[in-house]
Amino acid sequence: MALPHTAEHPARYWLMKSEPDECSIDDALHAPEATVPWTGVRNYQARNFMRDAMQVGDGVLFYHSSCPEPGIAGLARVASGTRTDPTQFDAASPYHDPKSPTDTPRWLLLEVQALRKTRLISLAELRAHPALADMRVLQKGSRLSITPVEPGEWAYITGVLMAGA
After folding, report:
1. Average pLDDT of span 84-92
2. Were 2 and a residue from 28, 55, 80, 135 both cysteine, which residue would form a disulfide, CB within 3.0 to 4.6 Å?
């Protein structure tokens, strides 16, 4: 259950990957309900981040992946707690999971609200900054679609790399 941000439960920061041909930062900014459901997460660790750690209001680096130039494309925020991801039960969906029980679904989604598009901060540019060397998305073998971002990394990206963007 998501708790309100307090001194005991401060805001957290996340990098969330999306394939721009499925949901780009522009799509999210123009979503009819002002939020987009983050569906299709099929990794237990990423699901557990959503379920156990992500809170309404947390900051999100909206990252375009599986495209010619991957990188951070905008800022967003977590807009809801988790609920069942219906795509797991849809046989026509690429995210269908026939083994997920309907009474205790495996997969969850949450809503994300895009706040603004930024200049694209490419993966290569992120790698070029020593201050970001420990960032999870830059670690060899990192393939998670959702990763925590440390407060110092968030401050550096939003304050230094996005300055004037």
Report:
1. 98
2. 55
